[in-house]
Amino acid sequence: MMLSQLHNIITRRRAPSLHQKIFAHSKQVTPYLSGSFGALHSKSIAITNDDSHKEIKRVYDGLAQNHPEAGKAYWLTRTWDLVCWQPIYVTFISIYGLHSLPDIKNIGQFRYKEFVTGYRFFNGDHQHGSPEELIPQAGEAILALTEFYRSQISEWTRIRPGFTNHLLADLLLSSLIKLQQHEPSLTNDYITEQAKLWLAACQLSESHLDSLKVDANSGMLKLIRVSCCLVYKCESGKYCDDCPRHPDNKKAAK
């Protein structure tokens, strides 16, 4: 379903119904983004659970066991991306698809082996509005959530705010690139203006806008990340298309 169609969906006041719409659209993006509604159990990765660090550490340990050749920097980077991807995706789906924002700050997530998949809300709170109205509130929730994740990881290893800020900026911008790819009618200027709003809302430097480039073939925006996920260090890994280490992107950056 195209975003232009999603924008026309009339949201209902009854929270469970709106959650069901978010869950349905999430699974259209990827089956790994499976939502549910109800109480969070003790093993949930959630801001309401101070033992979240144990589950996040199990993600890290699983990566270390399955990819010993990749090293600690990869294990940590991948762990961070895994705990952040679902809240960001759900936020973008809700804001741009349904013009609503659920209680992202209190989202619960689940670990499956060394992966984080599946999310849950335990309350029906929703805010409604345009992306411009909702982004500041979403940014506040994302900042609280990511700072919580960082504090939980700090229980067992060093993780610098500068490191996580770069990763968060890249994740936000890559989500905007996916948004434009899904709805090509969204102009480069619109995506750039949205990027400014997201960076400001998450207290990130506007210098990250330099990561957005115009693709010579499509005329649409593309991202050359500031950070590297380091997946190329895995035995079967290679450079991602938006990796700053990719030879094509090194040329584009000059």
TrEMBL record:
Boundaries of every Ferric siderophore reductase C-terminal domain copy: 225-245
GO molecular function annotation: 2 iron, 2 sulfur cluster binding
Pfam families named in the record: FhuF_C
Domain of life, source organism: Bacteria
Coiled coil: none
NCBIfam families assigned to the protein according to its UniProt record, in alphabetical order: sidero_Fe_reduc
Name of the protein described by the UniProt record: Ferric siderophore reductase C-terminal domain-containing protein
Natural source organism: Vibrio coralliirubri
